[in-house]
């Protein structure tokens, strides 16, 4: 797994030769740095390397892992710690190459063999770890075929990787409703790790990977609903904050990780 500090040091001392770019797997940029150093005979490549070092050192560990480690099939260490806290096995070791989630075996889409261009482009962007672009294309693909199970599953994976939990659960629920039955994939797929570390995953699993039905309001007057729900939401927030504090005190979360997770809860 690539190290943020090592990459920054390479950028400072050997940035003129693009060593940090080769270390991060960006061979094309590394060659460009070498070319500039040979052709220009100036300090421009070294100056650019220092700028790169500043950017690398200013990144959080999570951001660095997401950009330079997860892209290569590597597992951010914070995910494994969270999974172990939930009682699930750690994620798989680094793979040779990243693959987009395969189309589920059960419940084929109704489009038969018709090619969906947005689906093809979305999978390509997913492999390149352009998650926002993949989400956009997968969503457009659903406009063409809203019952495509693999599109819903792929969207759930992309939303999980970008930590958009509600949308990830919604698309998993829709995939199962349309006939997806490979539940073991939901419990083991690396890209769904963030979904599995959520408190509600146990309830989701017990409900056969379906979201609980929302209660039907028998009256149109909902003026009292917010005041009734707010204490429950406050209690849940306090419980989650307390749990984060306990994990930090036990050494399972660093101070930085604690601050990041706290900000997410209080947003």
Explain what you see.
- By secondary structure, this protein is mostly helical.
- It has three domains: 4-59, no CATH class; 103-206, Alpha Horseshoe (Serine Threonine Protein Phosphatase 5, Tetratricopeptide repeat), CATH 1.25.40; 225-266.
- Helices cover 63% and strands 0% of the residues.
- It contains 15 helices and no strands.
- It has helices at residues 4-14, 19-23, 27-40, 44-58, 61-69, 77-86, 117-127, 131-144, 149-161, 165-177, 183-188, 193-196, 201-206, 225-249, 255-266.
Question: Which helices and strands, and how do they pair?
Answer:
Blueprint lengths: L3 H11 L4 H5 L3 H14 L3 H15 L2 H9 L7 H10 L30 H11 L3 H14 L4 H13 L3 H13 L5 H6 L4 H4 L4 H6 L18 H25 L5 H12 L1
- Kindly report how far apart the N and C termini lie: 31 Å
Structural class: mainly alpha
Gyration radius, to the nearest Å?
Answer: 22 Å
Task: Count helical runs.
Answer: 15
Number of domains: 3
Question: Architecture of the largest domain, according to CATH?
Answer: Alpha Horseshoe
Question: What overall form do the CA principal axes indicate?
Answer: flat
Uncertain regions spanning at least 5 consecutive residues: 106-113, 219-229
How much is the average pLDDT? 77
Largest sheet: none
The proportion of residues in beta strands is under 5%
- Counting DSSP E segments of at least 2 residues, the number of strands comes to 0
CATH class of the largest domain: Mainly Alpha
Name the helix and strand elements from N-terminus to C-terminus, one letter apiece: HHHHHHHHHHHHHHH
Helical fraction: 55-70%
Question: Which fold does the CATH topology of the largest domain refer to?
Answer: Serine Threonine Protein Phosphatase 5, Tetratricopeptide repeat
CATH superfamily of the largest domain: Tetratricopeptide repeat domain
């Amino acid at each position: 797994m690539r190290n943020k500090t090592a990459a920054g040091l390479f950028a400072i001392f050997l940035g003129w030769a693009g060593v940090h770019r080769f270390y991060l797997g960006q061979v094309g940029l590394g060659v460009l740095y070498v070319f500039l150093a040979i052709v220009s005979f100036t300090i421009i490549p070294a100056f650019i390397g220092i700028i790169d070092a500043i950017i690398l050192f200013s990144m959080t560990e999570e951001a660095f892992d997401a950009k330079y480690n997860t892209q290569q099939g590597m597992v951010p260490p914070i995910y494994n710690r969270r999974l172990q806290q939930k009682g699930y096995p750690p994620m798989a070791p680094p793979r040779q190459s990243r693959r987009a989630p395969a189309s589920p075996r059960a419940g084929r889409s109704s489009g038969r063999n018709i090619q969906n261009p947005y689906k093809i482009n979305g999978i390509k962007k997913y492999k390149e770890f352009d998650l926002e672009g993949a989400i956009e294309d997968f969503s457009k693909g659903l406009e063409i075929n809203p019952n495509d199970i693999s599109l819903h599953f792929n969207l759930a994976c992309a939303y999980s990787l970008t930590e958009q939990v509600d949308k990830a659960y919604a698309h998993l629920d829709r995939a199962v409703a349309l006939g997806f039955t490979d539940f073991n994939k939901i419990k083991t797929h690396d890209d769904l790790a963030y979904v599995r570390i959520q408190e509600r995953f146990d309830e989701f699993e017990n409900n056969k990977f379906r979201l609980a039905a929302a209660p039907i309001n028998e009256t149109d007057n909902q003026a009292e609903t917010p005041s009734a729900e707010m204490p429950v939401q406050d209690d849940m927030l306090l419980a989650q904050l307390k749990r984060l504090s306990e994990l930090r005190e036990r050494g399972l979360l660093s101070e930085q990780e604690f601050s990041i997770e706290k900000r997410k809860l209080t947003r």
